[in-house]
Amino acid sequence: MRSSWTRFEVWLSEHWPEGLAGLNPPATDEQIAGLQEAIGITLPDDYVACLKIHNGQNPDTGGLFEGSEFLSTDEILAQWTVWKDLLDGGDFAGIHSDPSSGIQSDWWNARWIPFTHNGGGDHLCLDLAPDASGSAGQVITMWHDSGERELVAPHFGSWFTSYTKRVFSGDLVYSDEYGGLIDREDA
């Protein structure tokens, strides 16, 4: 994780210095433990390693991950709590998603941990409650107004490696108009 972040930080320093400056310092053990206790879930080791490098980003910086904010431990809890309150309030009773193989058909699951947010209720999540053909810690999409749930990567480490490769290859670029990294075709 460290080597991928180091290379990504070099790229940011050359292509989007404000994005680099907007990364938060590492999460402390106390912050990570507090998040895990609040949500009642142990986070995957590869994701914890990421948080120990950068505890998300300043939300005013722009979208680090395809136009979406990289959530800090505090923001993960805030976003998770919104969804948990809706779930506990019965808002999703009888509603199912249309998931890719390996993902449960819940509209939202309390064991889906958001790590990005696009400002409109959409997330990439760590899925810690996959169905029988999935794997715990897989990365999935969670759209607030669409039932589609896609499997993006088998775990956070592979997702981050793939994401940074897309950055380094030029498939993702900084857009001043969008205020973050986006697909080159959308720039």
From TrEMBL:
Q: Which Pfam families match?
A: SMI1_KNR4
Q: Where does the record place the Knr4/Smi1-like domain?
A: 26-162
The record's InterPro entries line, in alphabetical order, gives: Knr4/Smi1-like_dom, Knr4/Smi1-like_sf, KNR4/SMI1_regulator
Gene3D superfamilies assigned:
SMI1/KNR4-like
SMART domains per UniProt: SMI1_KNR4
Mark the transmembrane ranges. Answer: none
Q: What is this protein called?
A: Molybdenum cofactor biosynthesis protein MoeA
